[in-house]
Amino acid sequence: MSLSPVQLVVIGAGPGGYAAAFKAADLGLSVALVDKEANPGGVCLYRGCIPSKTYLHAAKVISEARHAADFGIAYGAPKIDINKLRDWKKSVVAKLTGGLGALTKQRKIRYIQGEAVFVNSSALKIKKSDGIVEDLSFEKAILATGSRPSAMPNLPKSRHIWDSTSALDMDAVPGRLLVVGGGYIGMELGTVYHELGAKISVVEMMPGLLPGADRDLADVLYKRVKGLFARIMLETKVVKMEENKDGITVTFADKDGKEFKEDYDQVLVSVGRKPNSEGLGLENTKVKVNARGFVEVNDQRRTNDPNIYAIGDVAGDPMLAHKATHEGLVAAEAIAGHKVAFEPRAIPAVVFTDPEIAWCGLTETDAQKTGQEIRVVKFPWGASGRALTLGRQDGLTKILVDPKTERVLGIGIVGVGAGEMIAEGVVAVEMGSVVKDLKLSIHPHPTLSETIMEAAESFFGSSTHIYRPKK
Ligand SMILES: Cc1cc2nc3c(=O)[nH]c(=O)nc-3n(C[C@H](O)[C@H](O)[C@H](O)COP(=O)(O)OP(=O)(O)OC[C@H]3O[C@@H](n4cnc5c(N)ncnc54)[C@H](O)[C@@H]3O)c2cc1C
After folding, report:
1. Ligand 1, closest atom to CA 15?
2. Which residues, listed in sequence order, are joined to residue 151 by a DSSP beta bridge?
């Protein structure tokens, strides 16, 4: 059977795919959107950003209630109804994905629940959720099939081993939880389970948590979680996992190769994500896939096949929802004939731990790697009135400046609410602001955003709340 042809088909309805489909329909194209789920949402809404942030909000409430004792308000130990918490997460996801389903209908996009495979550069075979297989021919396609958790080799099949998806299903809080991988997903979910009462251990083979983030930012988080988590093992590898009577026995090797064993009730493996570029029939098209499995694209997100575009996680790093959405908009506009390109100067990254870490534009780590000359100005939150009112002086704001042009090249923030604050940095970097723009823009008082203004002031020798003696 064949479905009637469309101008554009989008495969995968995550934040990249549905944004692309919506934009293309708004621009007047006839659009079909294919996904395995009943409504759009993708990993981000069903198994990623939204469920994890729903739980992180609950974790924050628990943590703040505990810290309220420091200023004289004590609530006692929280009573956690895990089923209610999970149902609340489910209701948030259902509301958002249902809303996207309604928006799809309003835009007259043909939504097909099923799995698509390319037959050639202008036709798909779609195995629909009702089991019927249909052909769909198209003028252009956007591949937005996203990514999945990377597995570790030789793991036993066990209900005591989670990936990020099963950890978010949440049916119980384990006693001892080992998080394998100190990246953002492991640290966020570790934070959630810590606040719910699990004893968290983290193992990371690199010398620090959050490889990729600047060390001075990651160190603030490290100091805090070191005091909260049971154990953080750096430069340590997992050698083997074996199921035992009621959990998992894990064999580790430290940096000298010395092996040791520990028992855990549950293990969360969060060692990265892999693009979904296999099993799609790409061999029947001209699409090229690189050695890491990412689809190769140009600055309009067009693949090597003139009819096929690719966006989001399947099209390369950084694997972030907002990057996927932006690429989706560019691809849809390019297909509609607009002169556009994907060329951001600043894709923000946010780690929603406690404290949060956020950065955009150039990082100090990258500048060191390339030898790019920069000046870094910092404002420690110990000098922020707002941070003091929150009882959270464990923060730092820094600005990376081009010493010659005084342009703002990047901003990094660690501290509560850093994820909201970084948007100012994105605007500064994208707009090519000079550091004086940040210094001269009046920031509201008392806010944490003032730390950006004061870091900018210190570029010129002094800032109001930090005394620096003259040399
Ligand atoms: C636990 C977790 C937390 C995260 N938190 C954040 C965060 O806070 N902020 C952030 O920016 N990012 C976060 N991410 C990453 C974010 O989820 C991804 O970057 C984003 O979802 C990528 O969007 P996408 O559109 O490329 O594809 P995805 O969201 O991966 O969606 C792809 C869709 O394609 C469908 N699909 C695949 N193959 C086919 C096929 N053959 N036919 C039909 N449909 C198909 C899939 O079922 C899926 O629905 C998180 C991820 C995880 C796992």
Report:
1. 25
2. none
pLDDT at 405: 98
Cα–Cα dist 176/335, whole Å: 51
Compute the distance from residue 434 Cα to the ligand 1 centre, in Å: 35
Does ligand 1 come within 6 angstroms of the Cβ of 37?
yes
DSSP state of 139: E
Question: DSSP label at 312?
Answer: G
Could you confirm whether 445 is annotated as catalytic?
Answer: yes
Rounded Cα distance between 52 and 160, Å, is 20
Q: What is the secondary structure of 96-134 as a DSSP string?
A: HHHHHHHHHHHTT-EEEEEEEEEEETTEEEEEETTS-EE
Please, are residues 21 and 14 in contact by the beta-carbon 8 Å criterion? no
CA–CA separation, 286 and 271 (whole Å): 31
Strand partners, 375: 401
Other residues' Cβ atoms within 10 Å of the Cβ of residue 207 = 10
With a cut of 80, say whether residue 312 has pLDDT above it.
yes
Q: Is 401 in the pocket of ligand 1 (CB under 6 A)?
A: no
Ligand 1 and 56: CB distance under 6 A: no
- Check pocket membership of 271 for ligand 1, CB cut-off 6 A: no
What is the token pair recorded at 146? 């996203």
Per-residue pLDDT tens over the stretch 217-244: 999 999 999 999 999 999 999 999 999 9
Kindly tell me the burial class for residue 102, based on how many C-beta atoms sit within 10 Å of its own C-beta (0-12, 13-18, 19 or more).
exposed
Q: Whose CA is nearest to atom 51 of ligand 1?
A: 48
Nearest atom in ligand 1 to 12's CA: 34
Return the beta strands (E) in 362-456 as ranges: 375-380, 396-401, 408-415
- CB-based contact 208:218 (threshold 8 Å): yes
Ligand 1 pocket test target in 22, 33, 45, 145 with most atoms within 8 Å of CB: 145
The pLDDT, as a whole number, for residue 96 is 98
φ, ψ dihedrals at 94, nearest 5° = -65, -40
In tens, the pLDDT along 149-171 reads 998 988 999 999 999 999 999 88
Q: Given the residues 57, 338, 443, 445, select the one marked as catalytic.
A: 445
Count of H-run helices and E-run strands, the chain: 13, 21
Residue 189 alpha carbon, nearest atom of ligand 1: 1
Residue nearest to atom 5 of ligand 1 (CA): 49
Give the Å distance between the CA of 141 and the centre of ligand 1.
18
204 in Cβ contact with 216 (< 8 Å): no
Distant-in-sequence, close-in-space partners of 26: CB < 8 Å, separation ≥ 6: 107
Question: Distance (Å, rounded) from C-alpha 277 to C-alpha 315?
Answer: 9
